[in-house]
Amino acid sequence: MHSHFVLLAAYNRWMNERLYAAAGTLPGEELARDRGAFFRSILGTLNHLVVADTIWLRRFADLPARHAELDPVRALPQPERLDAMPFPEFAALAAHRGWLDAIIERWVSVLGEPDLRHVLHYGNTRGARFRRQLAPLLLHFFNHQAHHRGQVTTLLSQAGVDVGVTDLLALVPDAGVDTAAAPRPH
C-alpha cells in the first residue's frame, strides 16, 4: 500500500507543477474570471484544493505518530470554509502549493503500515463526526485532488491553455515488459 501512496504523492506534485505552469500563462483577471465552475474560477478552484488539503493534513497531523513532517501544517490556521480564498494572488498561491506538495511527499514517505491502518477520529466543516481508517482517507485525499485538477484542466482548456499529459500512467515505472509487444496506453 505504501508504495502506491508514494506514487500518488509524486503524481500530485508533478500534476500541480504542470497545472500551475499552465495557469501562470494567463493574466490574473483570466484566472479570477467566473467561468461557472463549482468554485467559480480557476483561482477559486486552486484555492479550494489548498484549503481542502490543509484541512485533511491538519487531521492527519493528529495521528498518534505525530510525524514531524506535518509540524508546519499544525501551525497553519484551520480553514473555516471550503470556498475560502486564502490566496487571492496567483504567485502566492503557487508558492504555497509547492510548499504544501513538498510536505505531502515527505510525510507520505515516512508512513508505515501501522499508520495506514490507524483509525482517525475527525469532524468535518459542518461538525459531523467520523471514524475512518487512514488508508482509505488517503485515497480520498488524492482522488479529491485529481477530481478538482480535472476541473481546472477543463477550465484552462476552455481558456485556450493546454496542460498536456495528465495521466498517472506517465509516472508509473516500466516493469520490464517488452514495450514493442505490449499494448500502448491511450
From TrEMBL:
<dbReference type="InterPro" id="IPR007837">
    <property type="entry name" value="DinB"/>
</dbReference>
<comment type="similarity">
    <text>Belongs to the DinB family.</text>
</comment>
<dbReference type="Pfam" id="PF05163">
    <property type="entry name" value="DinB"/>
</dbReference>
<dbReference type="InterPro" id="IPR034660">
    <property type="entry name" value="DinB/YfiT-like"/>
</dbReference>
<keyword id="KW-0479">Metal-binding</keyword>
<protein>
    <submittedName>
        <fullName>DinB family protein</fullName>
    </submittedName>
</protein>
